[in-house]
Amino acid sequence: MGSIICARRAAKTVQGSHVFEISGYSLQRERLAVSSRSAVFTVGGYDWQIHFFPGGVIDCCKDYVAAYVFLESKNKDISVRASFQLSLVDVTGSAPPRTLTTGATELNTTDKTCVGLHKFMKRSELEGSPYLRDDRLTIECVAEIALVNDVKSIAKVPPSDIAEHLGKLLREKDGTDVVLEVEGEAFPAHKIVLAMRSPVFKAELYGEMRAKDMSCITIGDMQPAVFEVLLHFIYND
């Protein structure tokens, strides 16, 4: 009995969180694409960092603060699927968190290293909210990382019985489509089996020089008993 190694990709999800406290908000509120950065934190075996843009990240959205999460792992050819929940938190607990989610995104170290929200919150709204106190604010990031592993399993495969089935076809003459005639004795057979097992029959049955009517082929220079053994070999061995 043989075996086949089957490979599949199995994924599990891990979660982790990081709290990012930002001070001196007003120092950067007018500076486009300038960020405050969190400490690097690890979730799912990968390194991440939050970038918060008080002055916005692109000109068309400069009236909004923005928040992005960057993949900071430096290994080559990393690819990971991740989603992030980013929440502005009122440290006094008087207001519920303001939460937005990035959605699951495939990130890698080559051409897509970050995911985020360029309209995290309108700046005027933030500055009148309880989330900004004493020029400080707090962002909580909850990361959900899909870990994908290659899993190999071994499946037992029974030995091939194709020869048994082909031999049965020959014995019972089911579906025969050609007759091989040897010294007047007829041997019904199957063109496809003959062509598969013998290049001579393949050329005669399917080659460019084949005759129009190939329903009967005369075999010369061979005795019927010898040809019967040959035919048995073609179907069974």
From TrEMBL:
SUPFAM superfamilies: POZ domain, TRAF domain-like
GO BP term, pick one: protein ubiquitination
Entry coiled-coil feature ranges: none
Residue stretches making up the BTB domain: 176-237
Domain MATH: 15-143
Residue stretches spanning the membrane: none
Pathway(s) it belongs to: Protein modification; protein ubiquitination
PANTHER family in the record: BTB/POZ AND MATH DOMAIN-CONTAINING PROTEIN 1 (PTHR26379), GENOME ASSEMBLY, CHROMOSOME: II (PTHR26379:SF428)
Protein name: BTB domain-containing protein
Protein source organism: Triticum aestivum (Wheat)
Lineage, top ranks: Eukaryota, Viridiplantae, Streptophyta, Embryophyta, Tracheophyta
